[in-house]
């Protein structure tokens, strides 16, 4: 089948079905307002006649926003790129890296660059089997851009990956038979989605993973439509292999499962055995086995065993964390796809379900194969994720481009009444957000009884969050614009208004609100304290803290004890009496046989748990005599911008043998301890959606490393932790 035939598949059906007649650009009262730039418009004469008829019948003319949409659809990738840049560029260097993936992956990247760990990744100096290396190669390529350096590099990587997702989504929309307007609408739907907007501002590999999977889908679809297409299938399988080396086996599972089901739907089982299919599969195996062989040759057989046994088999069948029931995604999807979930309430279901069996069978015809591939990929992807033991909302992200295309086909063909109701619901949602943000801004004015009823974590978090009035004002303004100043009967124009909202909303969020959450979301303050003490000769140590949490900002490796075993901690302190330790607050309070010299110097919430930094001193006589009894002892405080003071040292606390100096970062100061030390101010965690940080990790016992005489001991090997919960698991 020719390339032209691929591009001319009908895209007229609501919700992606093919029951509508070819040539309808928009259903309901919007049908007469089809733009002349679309492929379905018969011609300029017919367009003018349609507009004249619409005027005579009282149907409103296209709004200015709808005309702007049609203009942007001429070169769709340009406005999508500009909007993505506007949404992300302000946040590149505005905040610290957050717990857990951002700071941990930053340390992994430093090991790639500084230690040359290009094939076998390391975290805190030990093998890190949770992720393959390609994402970090991608970061290294961006690092070559002049002026780009960590930590800015990591958020730039998220933005560039988001742009790749937009371009891949548009390409897939066009490949499956949709016109430019539908491709543009699919990209705008992603840019106006709350969850996608958040992911573009959080440094993870999921966006790059999604972009490569989407391109693999495109190549697979092109290949399976033809009797022989070696170039397309080899490219599709190669991209599936690359996706697997970005994050894991789902990169292979999504496109291959869709391919098999699509070929079966066409009734061409033998097509799977053609030479081009075998060649593509072979290329995929060569890429994957090539990396496995290279890692094996470096002597990392245990690393590979961990990947296959723990990271793949156990995660799929009996995961140690984030295990959820099969219906988990049915419950979490509505929130992840807001505001577009509301479209389910306003779609013309009567027409869609008029003859579903016939419509489904129509997708087996050549003009319906694009629709068939999209639906097969979406439904099989949800089924695959639901069958896997581990479930995190961000795992849905590779399905977002496909879902955006289906949503765009539905949106652009909404009848006028349905469109009005949908955007009315969206305006109501924005109004609710405005009210909620206003309540956050008014929190200091609430009576004490109301404040006391709130959880302490949430209360402290709300006390430090900045910019709530501004964000609430933006929500209120756009709620009113959608309600009063936008022609809600024309979905194209109203879509532009919604994208404008997210673009404006994210500016104060990225520049003002997100940085204000650093004292809760980032371990930077405690890490820099640990790093400063390590430079003074203290042995850096963490006890039951999520591995790799502090290494990047501390600038040094920590000895990590990840299981609850006080004997291991005692042994480490016997070997290194002069130590700086990060631990949970509850462990600090329950520590049996706590050394007499142990003292807390800083306390901080990290997401949903309080952690303390503790120092212990050498009992050597010369150390004891280094500072007169009762002399003030230097301590380190949390940055003032956080609104949180470090836990001060009591007057009688023994002084360190060597004075502690503050690190170079302005965020950490080393003031002298006043005679009356203020108590630390606790800061509560931010409740996070599962896409960016997830719930606390489930049980996992890891062998802890015994105390070692080296100044920077090797931490225990990480075993299968992709959790995003603070602290070592119970």
Architecture overview:
- This protein has 730 residues and is mostly helical.
- The protein has 3 domains: 70-92 and 155-411, no CATH class; 416-519, no CATH class; 523-730, no CATH class.
- 52% of the residues lie in helices and 5% in strands.
- It contains 31 helices and 7 strands.
- The protein has helices at residues 3-7, 44-56, 64-72, 77-88, 101-114, 134-142, 152-175, 180-191, 194-199, 206-224, 230-246, 250-266, 275-297, 301-317, 328-336, 343-346, 349-352, 356-362, 369-387, 400-411, 416-441, 448-453, 456-464, 468-485, 491-516, 518-521, 524-535, 551-554, 566-575, 585-590, 621-624; strands at 122-123, 126-127, 539-543, 559-561, 579-584, 599-606, 609-616.
- The protein has a 5-stranded mixed beta sheet, with helices on both faces. The protein has a two-stranded antiparallel ribbon with strand order 1-2.
- A hairpin with a 2-residue loop joins strand 1 (122-123) and strand 2.
- It is found in: Cell membrane.
Percentage of residues assigned to helices: 40-55%
Structural class: mainly alpha
The quaternary organization reads as single chain
Main sheet overview? 5 strands, mixed
Specify the overall morphology.
globular
Compute the number of strand runs: 7
State the helix count.
31
Please state roughly what percent of the residues sit in beta strands, choosing from under 5%, 5-15%, 15-25%, 25-35%, 35-45% or over 45%. under 5%
On the 0 to 100 scale, the average pLDDT is: 79
What's the alpha carbon Rg, rounded to whole Å?
28 Å
Strands side by side in the biggest sheet: 4-3-5-7-6
Uncertain runs are 1-13, 17-58, 620-730
First-last Cα distance? 58 Å
Total number of distinct structural domains: 3
Biased composition (Low complexity): 43-59, 622-705
Region (Disordered): 1-59, 622-730
Protein name: Glycosyl transferase, family 39
Biased composition (Polar residues): 14-42
């Amino acid at each position: 089948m020719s390339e032209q035939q691929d591009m001319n598949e009908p895209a007229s059906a609501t919700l992606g079905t093919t029951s509508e007649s070819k040539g309808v650009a928009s259903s309901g009262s919007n049908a007469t307002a089809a733009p002349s730039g679309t492929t379905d418009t018969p011609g300029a004469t017919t367009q003018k006649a349609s507009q004249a008829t619409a005027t005579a019948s009282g149907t409103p003319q296209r709004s200015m926003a709808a005309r702007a949409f049609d203009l942007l659809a001429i070169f769709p990738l340009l406005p999508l790129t500009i909007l993505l840049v506007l949404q992300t560029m302000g946040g590149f260097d505005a905040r610290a890296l957050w717990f857990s993936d951002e700071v941990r992956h930053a340390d992994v990247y430093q090991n790639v660059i500084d230690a040359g760990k290009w094939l076998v990744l390391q975290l805190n100096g030990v093998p890190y089997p949770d992720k393959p290396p390609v994402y970090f190669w991608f970061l290294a390529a961006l690092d070559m851009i002049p002026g780009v350096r960590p930590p800015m590099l990591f958020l730039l990587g998220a933005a560039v990956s988001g742009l790749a997702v937009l371009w891949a989504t548009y390409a897939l929309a066009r490949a499956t038979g949709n016109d430019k307007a539908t491709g543009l609408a699919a990209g705008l739907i992603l840019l106006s989605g709350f969850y996608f907007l958040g992911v573009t501002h959080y440094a993870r590999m999921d966006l790059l993973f999604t972009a490569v999977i989407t391109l693999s889908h495109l190549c697979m679809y092109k290949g399976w439509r033809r009797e022989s297409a070696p170039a397309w299938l080899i490219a599709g399988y190669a991209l599936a292999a690359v996706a697997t080396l970005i994050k894991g086996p789902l990169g292979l599972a999504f496109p291959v499962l869709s391919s098999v089901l699509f070929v079966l739907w066409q009734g061409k089982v033998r097509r799977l055995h053609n030479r081009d299919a075998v060649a593509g599969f072979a290329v995929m195996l060569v890429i994957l086995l090539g990396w496995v062989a290279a890692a094996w040759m470096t002597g990392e057989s245990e690393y590979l065993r961990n990947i296959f046994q723990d990271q793949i088999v156990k995660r799929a069948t009996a995961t140690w964390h984030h295990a959820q029931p099969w219906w988990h995604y049915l419950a979490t999807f509505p929130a992840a796809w807001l505001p577009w979930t509301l479209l389910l309430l306003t779609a013309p279901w009567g027409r869609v379900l008029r003859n579903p069996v016939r419509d489904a069978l129509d997708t087996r015809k050549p003009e319906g194969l694009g629709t068939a591939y999209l639906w097969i990929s979406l439904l099989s992807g949800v089924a695959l994720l639901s069958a896997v033991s581990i479930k995190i909302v961000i795992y849905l992200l590779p399905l977002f481009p496909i879902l955006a295309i289906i949503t765009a086909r539905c949106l652009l063909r909404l009848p006028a009444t349905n469109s009005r109701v949908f955007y009315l619901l969206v305006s109501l949602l924005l109004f609710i957000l405005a009210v909620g943000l206003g309540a956050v801004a008014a929190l200091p004015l609430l009576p004490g009884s109301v404040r006391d009823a709130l959880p302490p974590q949430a209360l402290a978090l709300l006390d430090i969050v900045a910019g709530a009035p501004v964000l609430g004002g933006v929500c209120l303004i756009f709620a009113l614009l959608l309600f009063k100043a936008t022609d809600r009967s024309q979905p194209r124009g109203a879509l532009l208004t919604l994208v404008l909202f997210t673009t404006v909303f994210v500016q104060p969020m990225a520049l003002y609100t997100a940085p204000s959450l650093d004292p809760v979301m980032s371990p930077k303050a405690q890490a820099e304290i640990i790093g400063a003490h390590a430079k003074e000769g203290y042995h850096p140590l963490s006890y039951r803290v999520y591995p790799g949490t502090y290494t990047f900002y501390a600038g040094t490796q920590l000895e990590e004890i990840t299981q609850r075993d006080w004997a291991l901690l005692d042994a480490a302190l016997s070997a290194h009496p002069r130590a700086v330790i990060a631990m949970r607050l509850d462990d600090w309070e329950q520590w049996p046989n706590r050394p007499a010299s142990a003292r807390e110097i800083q306390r901080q919430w990290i997401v949903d748990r309080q952690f303390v930094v503790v120092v212990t001193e050498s009992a050597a006589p010369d150390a004891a005599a280094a500072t007169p009894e009762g002399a003030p002892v230097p301590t380190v405080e949390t940055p003032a911008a956080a609104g949180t003071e470090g836990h001060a040292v009591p007057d009688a606390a023994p002084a360190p043998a060597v004075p502690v100096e503050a690190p170079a970062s302005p965020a950490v100061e080393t003031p002298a301890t006043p005679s009356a030390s203020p108590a630390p101010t606790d800061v509560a965690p931010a409740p996070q959606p599962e896409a960016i940080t997830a719930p606390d990790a489930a049980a996992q016992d890891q062998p802890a490393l015994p105390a070692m005489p080296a100044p920077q001991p090797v931490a225990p090997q990480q075993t299968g932790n992709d959790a995003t919960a603070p602290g070592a698991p119970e």
